[in-house]
Amino acid sequence: MIRLKNERQLNGIRESCKLLSAMFKDLIPLVKEGVRSIDLDAFCHEFIVKAGGRPAFLNYEGYPNSLCVSINDEVIHGIPGNRVIKKGDLVGIDCGIDLGGFFSDAAVTVCVAQVSPEAQRLVRVTRECLDLAIAQVKKGNRVNHVSRAVYEHASKAGFGVVSKYCGHGVGFDVHEEPSVPNYVGPGPNPRLSPGMVIALEPMINLGTGDVRLLDDDWTVVTKDGSLSAHFEHTVAVLEDRTEVLTQWEV
Length: 250
Prior knowledge:
With 250 residues, this protein is an alpha+beta fold. Helix content is 27%, strand content 26%. It contains 4 helices and 15 strands. Strand 4 (90-99) and strand 5 (102-111) form a beta hairpin. The protein starts with 6 loop residues before the first helix and ends in a 6-residue tail after the last strand.
């Protein structure tokens, strides 16, 4: 069931997104050569708790950390550890905050130092996919309008679109209905209505869209070992406009 949010609830989600955006502003400059992924997680956890929030991912269905850090061929859900970030890495950071029962979610892929031209292009196109998806989030459109915008742009660029994982509703929980795939399929295709809050998240691979799950039961990697990029914003459907609730700069 899709749960629509009233103005009071939207304001609570806005505050959660505002806090998450502030965290990303401070976190992104820390994603650099020589830093361990676990150090990024520690920063994230401390920032959220000090601000009175709760890391939404921590212990969610058993996930052990506050932040997802996915490097190079890791698509999503990379578990932070002692791995050291290197020059030329693509580092995806994904985080959510529970602030008084209102949830936010966002992700960004950071290029560490000088990455390859093909990696730069992958990141640029994935970011463009998110922008095109946001442009389709408006009252009266359907989920497939969003999905088609992502799929067509990524496919035209020659990249693989991950179909096994998708965007989703958010606001009262980490994941809610509706699912928002990055491809047009035979599943539910609800109309976008005022009060809907959704997390859009294109996951685009340099090779095919096929993925596999590692033995840790969380980290999703590209099946062919190619690079992957991931961007995500939380957005709200309003009567007269779309509001992008999260922010980050790269």
